[in-house]
Amino acid sequence: MIYGIGTDIVEIDRIKKIKSHDTFANKILGSEELQEYKKLKGELKISFLGKHFAAKEAFVKALGTGFIEPVFPKGIQVISSNNGKPKYSLSNSIKSHIDSLGISRAHVSIADERNHLIAFAVLEI
User: Fold this and answer.
1) Partners of 5 in the β-ladder
2) Domain edges within the chain
3) Domain 2-124 is in which class?
4) DSSP characters for 79-119?
C-alpha cells in the first residue's frame, strides 16, 4: 500500500547560479554522496547536485512533512545500486521515524532533460 508519493523538478540554471556549489553540497549531501560529488567536474557536479536535491525534496513531499526534525537533507542519501538504479539510504534517525509511521520501503526515480531534472518518490507501508 502506498503511504505517499512526491515529485520535484529542478531547473539546472538555478543550480548553476548558486554562488558556491561546494558549500551547497556540504549542506545537503551525506558522506557517501559527498565522496561521489568530489570525483566529478564542471557540469556533472551541477547535475549531481540538482538530481540529489530533487530526490530529497521528492522524499519529504511523499512523507508529507518537508524538512523538519528528524528529517534533514544530509540524512536522505541517494546512492546507486549495483545496476545503477538510484535508491535511498537513510540515516538511523530517519529510519526510526519512518518505521514508526509504518513505512517499509522507499523508491526513487530520477530523470533529466536539457535544463530540467525531475525526481519521483514513492513510500510504501
Assistant:
1) 122
2) 2-124
3) alpha beta
4) EE-TTS-EEEEE-HHHHHHHHHTT--EEEEEEEEETTEEEE
pLDDT tens digits for range 71-103? 999 999 999 988 989 999 999 999 999 999 999
* Integer Cα distance of 55 and 46 in angstroms: 14
Residue 76: Cβ within 10 Å count: 28
Where helices occur in the chain by DSSP H, the ranges are 12-16, 21-28, 31-38, 42-63, 92-100
Beta partners for residue 120, in sequence order: 7, 109
Confidence (pTM): 0.93
pLDDT in tens, 9-53: 999 999 999 999 999 999 999 999 999 999 999 899 999 999 999
Angle between the 42-63 and 31-38 helix axes, to the nearest 10 degrees?
A: 160
**Which set of grid coordinates corresponds to residue 49?**
547536485
Cell of 61: 513531499
